[in-house]
Amino acid sequence: MSVEELERKRAPERASFGPVAWARWVWRTLTSMKTALILLFLLALGSVPGSLVPQRGVEPDKVARLYEQSPALAAWYDRFQLFEVFTSVWFAAIYLLLFTSLIGCVIPRTATYVRELRRKPPAAPKNLSRLPHTAAFETGLDDGPAVEQAARRLRRLRFRVVTGDGWVSAEKGYLRETGNLFFHVALLGILLAIAGGSLYGYRGNVLVVEGDGFANTVAAYDRFFPGSQVSAESLEPFSFQLQDFKVAYQVTDDKRGQALDYSAHLKVNDSPQAPARDYDLKVNDPLEIDGTQTYLIGNGYAPVFKVTDGKGQVAFEGPVACLIEDKATMTSGCVVKVPDAQPSQLGFLLRFLPTSVPLTDGNHASAFPGELNPEVQVLGAFSGDLGVRSGKPQSVYELAEPEVLKKLKPVLMGTDMPKPLAVGQSVDLPGGLGKLEYIGVKEWITLQMAYDPGRMPALLAAGTAVVAIALSLMIRRRRVFVRIAGGRAEVGGLTRTEGSATGFAEEFAEIVKVLSAAGDKDVR
Amino acid sequence: MSAERLAELSDLFVVAAVLLYVVAMVGFAVDLAFGRTRLDRATDRATDRATDRAADGEPVEARRPVAVGAAVRDGESSATSEPASVTSEASVAAGAGAAEAGAGAVGTASGPTAPNVPARAGTVALALAWLGWAANFGALVTRGLAADRWPWGNMYEFVVAICFAAVTAFLVTQIRHNVRFLGAFVMVTAALGLGLAVKVFYTVAGPVVPALDSYWIAIHVTAAIIATGLMTMAGVSGILYLVRGDGASRLPARADLERVAHRAIVFAFPLWTFAVIAGALWADRAWGRYWGWDPKEVWAFITWVAYAAYLHAKATAGWKGRAATIVQLVAFGCLMFNLIGVNIFIDGLHSYADVD
Ligand code: HEM
User: Fold this and answer.
1) Is the minimum distance from the CB of A94 to ligand 1 under 6 angstroms?
2) Which of A83, A112, A141 is the last residue before a domain boundary?
3) Cβ(A203) to ligand 1 under 6 A?
4) Of A173, A278, B16, B117, which is least surrounded by CB within 10 A?
5) Does residue A484 sit in the same domain as residue A412?
């Protein structure tokens, strides 16, 4: 067989499965109900690792820990984008396919629906007794007027009505399909709103100590996550100062120590020119300035220290934000770095105990998260180059990288000085290296600022979705037919939707009651 | 009454509810196992059963010309005297026809002379179930009074409330449609749920953390609880559906089970949608973002998608019946994992479980 012959043999097959046919097949398959079902499954399944594997956007510290503990596993996770499931390529592929399927499904259904809306209900079938719901009664009228009366009464019940020779056909419940279409379109709306919000919105975190302030500029944030369309100028120019932060704790019972209320008192300037106003920032109650929300999301202690160096100069003075080590008692770990100290730099590791109580073994611990007896334990003091000026980024919660720490000279260890310092007390470093004074206690709060222009559109779309799905699931499409002959009316009814036909029997009985009511008065 | 007394009272109410549920369960089981109640149902309850069935897109039985023909003839005879009453008579007759022509369960309607002990057991069980419901309700109210807040701030309270919602769903459905056949299974589920709450999740009454101290708890959690209660009823029906084979059985008919499950989910799904959205609104107030893929949020989403898949399956050729029921149970599994698993195994912002 020559090549040509082969070609010719295949030709008809190809004609039926050319690119257009293929495209049509793919589109049909993609927009079929079965594919939608499978894609929904995949969407659910694809979300599962997002809850089991720590996500970079949610718990970056856990991701880092996993990299330390099992680098090989972490590398594999990373390869499959499991640290960013919800922004991964494969997850996007699932939901984009699903939404393509959705569009492909909704458009033809909308067309059908519009056509159906214009179409009149079908003529009444010949034999009504075959319908699931039937009844009969004597009309007591001539047949012509009886048909008219039935039609009128059904119209009053908000049916769409068509009459013919001796019959009435009525239908209602079109809102069901409306609801279904609106629901699916609203889902698209939610997706678009989220996408828009992430392009034009931003989020940032900052830690503020009592007495300090914040001005909404990119540089002021500790962490800043802008959308790709956000520029430095698009930040709302507000500022505020944290005057005072208060926590109320439960003091009795089993729940002793549980926080009851957080309140941060702010002096807010809505814009550089605006006068300052007072604002109490609380959990569940963000500060809103022109679409930018400021949330209170965390708090802790910032004891105030003064360090005098070996030359008698004050090398450091101020509050130091401590990391919480134990949430229940607010026992916190603090680091004081004094790169300006002479003759050598100094560093301190401390533990802050908001309510310090002595233990039987001579040690101390915090017994309550509130500051009833705030004391500080010196765990260690070091001298030597802290590496602060090396240019490498440093954590304020860590004295130094392990390799730098090894080179530092310990001048004081916690075991030398188990008794904690009370406010106003100080400790002298041996060898005339200097002195650490514990002056007082402040508190810090962490704030999150968020600007998301997609919030409102997303809310609107979500609200639409809820109303629409309720309509779609609760309303039934139903038809009622009446045939009248010789003074006798036969009524038949059916619902056109599976499942949600709850209670149509009652409704049908009610309809028949209205239809069969005697006299001209159209009773309800 | 002092807060402590109220809290103690609440604990007592829970115990009472468990006991009442267990006894009610026995009653329902007797009704189910020895019942000639099928006959009972076919006459007393024929109206709603049969018309439900017919209305549910199962017109096969109802369309049987004999049954309906009889109905119309019945109607005819009394039509002249009182036209409006025709319908009810007609549908009773049609109903009886449909019920008789229905699944194997109805076929057991025989031996009308036997003393109807099982049916009475069922009635007593129903009364006990209502009592248990009242005790469960009392437990919630006193707990709320003791803590001076909405009584669903931790895992224990949440589970107690869900059991209450599931029993409510069953009892309210029972008012209009005969779903007594589910009684034993709903009761055992509620009793086990309460037992689990007391044994594993118990926490003393007290205030909640500030993040939970918001009116959103009333909106978001209440919606979630009601939806979960309904979905629990659907889940119980789904499990029975799978356990029960085809053909005759003491267990309720598959069509009945499927219908109860679908009906419950039709109500629950919009509610769950609303609960998730209300949760997003609350998260927007509390944490500065309406959706952050926190584990609880992830599983709420998975659950929602899974129930959407169930509704799709119900509308997809070749997926009805068994396959749809399996999808429904997978969705229910996701719901339960979100309720219990996520709180215990995965920590996130929603760690309000307060379980030691
Ligand atoms: C984004 C994902 C989707 C979700 C969450 C979703 C959800 C739902 C829900 C909850 C229902 C039940 C409402 C009712 O029965 O009236 C439904 C119905 C329906 N959906 Fe979707 N859907 C999605 C995508 C799709 C897609 C891609 C298609 C088309 C292939 C589709 C076609 C349909 C159809 C035809 C119904 C009506 C079923 C019936 O008549 O009962 N959906 N959808």
Assistant:
1) no
2) A112
3) no
4) A278
5) no
Looking from the CA of residue A187, the nearest atom of ligand 1 is 1
Q: Is the confidence at residue A6, as pLDDT, over 60?
A: no
Query: Do A94 and A231 sit in the same domain of this protein?
Result: no
Element (H, E) at A202: strand A202-209
Question: For position A132, which CATH number holds?
Answer: 3.30.310.50
Which of B230, B293, B314 would best serve as a mutation to test chain A binding (most A beta carbons within 10 A)?
B293
Centroid of ligand 1 to alpha carbon of A455 (angstroms): 25
- Asked if A135 and A100 sit in the same domain, the reply is no
CB within 8 Å: B51 and A504: yes
What residues in B contact A137, CB-CB < 8 Å? 75, 79, 83-84, 86
Pocket test for ligand 1, best of A26, A30, A100, A102 (most atoms within 8 A of CB): A102
Asked if residue A4 is part of any domain, the answer here is no
What number of other Cβ atoms are within 10 A of residue A428's Cβ?
A: 12
Distance from CA of B140 to the nearest CA of A (A): 20
Q: Do B287 and A449 touch (CB under 8 A)?
A: no
- CB within 8 Å of B189: residues ≥ 6 apart: B163, B166, B232, B236
The verdict on residue A183 lying in a domain is no
Distance between CA atoms of residues B152 and B159, nearest Å: 8
> Do A225 and A142 fall into the same domain?
no
Q: Which residues of A touch B56 (CB under 8 A)?
A: 498-499, 501
Same domain as A277, residue A370 = yes
pLDDT digits (tens, 9 = 90+) for A372-412: 999 999 888 888 888 777 766 667 777 777 777 778 888 88
Q: Report d(CA A322, CA A351) in Å as an integer.
A: 8
Question: So what's the ipTM on this one?
Answer: 0.79
> Which of these ranges, B21-35, B180-194, B319-333, B338-352, has the smallest mean pLDDT?
B338-352
- As for how many domains chain A has, the answer is 3
Across the range B183-190, mean pLDDT stands at 91
Complete DSSP assignment for A403-471: HHHHHSEEEEEGGG--SPEETT-EEEEGGGTEEEEEEEEEEEEEEEEEE-TTHHHHHHHHHHHHHHHHH
> Among all residues of chain B, which has the CA nearest to that of A57?
B292
What is the predicted pLDDT for the residue at A22? 87
Q: Which residues of chain A neighbour B309 with C-beta distances below 8 Å?
A: 37, 40-41, 44
Quick one: closest CA in B to A253, which residue?
Answer: B206
In sequence order, the 6+-apart residues with CB closer than 8 A to the CB of A266 are A240, A241, A242, A243, A278, A279, A280, A281, A287
Q: Do B86 and A474 touch (CB under 8 A)?
A: no
Residue A375 shares a structural domain with residue A497 = no
Nearest residue (by CA) to ligand 1, atom 40, is: B315
DSSP string, A376-414: EEEEEEEES---GGGSS---TTSSS-HHHHHHSEEEEEG
Q: Are B69 and A518 a contacting pair at CB < 8 A?
A: no
Cα A180 to middle of ligand 1, angstroms: 7
Q: Where are the domains of chain B?
A: 1-46+119-206, 209-355
Domain that holds residue A483: 120-173+476-516
Q: Which residues fall within 8 angstroms of residue A6, CB to CB, at 6 or more apart?
A: none
